[in-house]
Specification:
Elements: E1 6-11, H1 13-19, E2 23-27, E3 32-33, H2 34-44, E4 55-58, E5 61-62, E6 68-69, E7 74-78
Parallel strand pairs: 1-7
Antiparallel strand pairs: 1-2, 3-6, 4-5, 4-7
Length: 84
């Protein structure tokens, strides 16, 4: 798999506890709305539900559900108030 089809995902605080990891590299074949990607994450890790309370940053900038995640991006997933 080419690195251009991957994203780096960082998990913080409670999110890291529920996923069992602090980071992972995952495939992303095409640009995907952040909200859609987040919903797929919750499907992988149901204890994160509901997805609406989680926050995302794309390349270190807070993201809205309509923002696109693109191959090669770095994604951070965290609760609205997080301690690291």
């Amino acid at each position: 798999m080419e690195t251009g089809t991957l994203i780096e995902v960082l998990y913080f605080a409670r999110v890291a506890e529920h996923t069992g990891m602090r980071r992972e590299t995952v495939p992303l074949a095409a640009p995907t709305p952040a909200g859609e990607w987040l919903q797929a994450l919750v499907e992988r890790f149901p204890t994160l539900a509901p997805a609406s309370h989680l926050k995302l940053a794309i390349n270190q900038e807070h993201a809205r559900a309509s923002d696109l995640i693109r191959p090669g991006d770095e994604i951070a997933v965290f609760d609205p108030v997080t301690g690291g």
